[in-house]
Amino acid sequence: MNPSDVLMSEHRVIEQVLRCLDEIVKQGESQGAIDRDNALSAIEFFQHFADHCHHGKEETHFFTWMEDHGFPRDGGPTGVMLYEHEQGRERIQGMLSALDRAAEGEAKAVAVFAVNARAYIGLLSEHIQKEDHCLFPMAENRMSEAERNEMLERFRKTEREHEDGHAHARYLQIADRLAERYQVERANVSPEWFAIYESARA
Predict the structure, then answer these.
(1) Is the pLDDT of residue 100 over 80?
(2) What is the spatial distance between Cα 133 and Cα 128, in angstroms, rounded to a whole number?
(3) Span 168-192, mean pLDDT?
(4) Which 8-state DSSP code applies to residue 187?
(5) What's the CA gap between 174 and 32, in Å, rounded?
(6) Alpha carbon 127 to chain centroid distance?
(7) Are 184 and 19 a contacting pair, CB within 8 Å?
(8) Lowest CB count within 10 Å: 3, 6, 111, 171, which one?
(9) Is the model's pLDDT at 19 over the cut of 80?
(10) Measured distance between the N- and C-terminal CA atoms of the chain, rounded to whole angstroms
């Protein structure tokens, strides 16, 4: 596996939960209240898996490597991605700020939650496309085989340090539980990706 294969496999799971969030919003608008428990599960997934586990690997390792190898941050691709990460965090906070009242059926809060959720879905969907089809290929065209292997080991180390490597599995369970609840198709990811995280827990 290449480092970008790991990150793109994580993208597929993130997209799965984005589709679940879309269903949470649709159901909430239809019923007049947001399902608090499932919305919180989705937000927890985005905060910890998408932002801490996934964006953490990008920001600490992948983007840093790019900047050390001639890709500028200011006015360059990593700067755009980092800015969009921050925008996503703001949308998460927007959802959280409205959730309790939206769960109680306050119409204005349901609307605020929906606006932030849909903005987050659109932002991350476009962000993922940019990384998959532009950023990652640019980087890996410059990576040597030794650098790819070193990056993969850094990813494993990140997972080992994050709650002894077990957090990843827990958030995948959240993703699958939400997919089952909202009848969303599960992500199609490679067995090699799972093997990376099995080795991180070893």
Answers:
(1) yes
(2) 8
(3) 90
(4) P
(5) 24
(6) 10
(7) yes
(8) 111
(9) yes
(10) 19
The total of other beta-carbon atoms located within 10 Å of residue 18's CB is 22
The larger pLDDT score, comparing residue 168 to residue 187, is at 187
Does residue 89 sit in helix, strand or coil?
helix
Question: Does residue 178 register a pLDDT over 60?
Answer: yes
Q: What is the dihedral of CA 172, 47, 124, 114, to 10 degrees?
A: 110
Q: Give the pLDDT of residue 167.
A: 73
Separation CA 182–CA 176 (nearest Å): 10
Q: DSSP per residue over 60-71, as a string?
A: IIIHHHHHHTT-
User: Which residue, among 45, 55, 76, has the nearest Cα to 173 in the 3D structure?
Assistant: 45
pTM above 0.85, yes or no: yes
CA distance linking residue 180 with residue 193, whole number of Å: 22
Q: Note the pLDDT of residue 40.
A: 98
Q: By CB neighbour count within 10 A (0-12 exposed, 13-18 middle, 19+ buried), where does 191 fall?
A: exposed
Whole-number average pLDDT of the chain: 92
Who contacts 130 (Cβ-Cβ below 8 Å, separation ≥6)? 80, 81
Q: CA–CA distance from 17 to each of 43, 50, 66, 179, 198 (Å)?
A: 9, 10, 28, 7, 22
Tokens of 49: 């898996």
**Other residues' Cβ atoms within 10 Å of the Cβ of residue 198:** 11
User: Of how many residues is the chain composed?
Assistant: 202
